[in-house]
Design brief:
disordered N terminus; 7-stranded antiparallel β-sheet; 7 strands; Pnp Oxidase, Chain A; single chain; alpha+beta
Amino acid sequence: MNPTRLAGGEADKELFVSSAYLYVATERRDGTRSTSQPVWFMYHEGKLFFTTSPTSWKAKRIAAGSPLFIHVARKDGPFFVGDAKLVRDLKLIDRMGAAYARKYWLAWFGLFRPRRERVKLGKTNAYLVTLRRSEKQAR
């Protein structure tokens, strides 16, 4: 992988602010990449956050140290590599829930948005994504 620039510039900020989805893949034990799946996310103060089920392959691979392979906005959109760190800050979870409700109409109805109760019970995992680099081409 040849990095072309570090992530986090003004153009990247606009990209994340204007996008509804991240398409996220992880690395399997055998070194191959999983199929990318769309996830809702929050971009806040230069940071990306998303949630997933703790029983998902995505969560299991993140726990095993897999990097994230991220396309922004669409499956063939701008590409980034990052790392995800589990977060348990309940105030952050509340901000995520409110941000999802503003961004996604289903979340506005109360569906599929991050909730502190689900995080406390271990039914939802929330992650902070640290972008390492962006690349011209994804494999």
